[in-house]
Hints:
The protein is of the alpha+beta class and 154 residues long. The protein has 2 domains: 1-34; 36-152, Protein of unknown function DUF192 (Jelly Rolls, Sandwich). Helices cover 27% and strands 34% of the residues. It has helices at 2-32, 54-59, 137-140; strands spanning 38-41, 44-51, 71-81, 85-86, 94-99, 105-112, 120-121, 127-134, 149-152. The model is unreliable at 15-31 (pLDDT under 50).
Amino acid sequence: MQNRNIFFILIIIIFFAxxxxxxxNNFSKNLExxxxxxxxxxxxTLKINLALTPEAQEQGLSGRKELKEDESMLFVFxxxxxxxxxxxxxxxxxxxxxxxxDFRVVYIKxxxxxxxxxxxxxxxxxxxxxxxVFSSFSGKNNLKVGDKVEFLSS
Length: 154
C-alpha cells in the first residue's frame, strides 16, 4: 500500500511539473515577440525591424532608401490570415516571405518591384508572420516553401 501511494504521488508531481513546463514555454513565447532582434532563415541570420502595430505594418519599408543584405523587416500579426502586401512608396525591390504559425515558409514572392504598385501579393494559404528581405535573398540562399525559420532574441 505504501509503494502504491508513493507511485501516485510521483505521478501527480510529474503531471504538475509537465503542466508548469508547458505553460511557462507558451508564456515565454508570447513575451519574446517584442524581444526578437534576429531571424535565421535558409542558414542566414538577419537583423530585423519589427512591425507590430497596424501603423508600422502599413508603413513597412516604404520611403526607406535601402535595405542592407543583413537586414529585414518582420511583420507579426495577432492571428493567422491571408495578408496581402504592396510596393507603395518603395525605392528598391525586395523578396517577401510569408511564414506560418509553425515557423515554416508558406509562400515566397521574389523580386517584388517598386513599379508593381498598385499590384498586391498574397499567398494561397494563411500565415502569421511576413518577412521582407533584400531582393535575390531567396534565390541566392535556395530558400523554399517548407523551410524552417527561427526568431532569435540575441
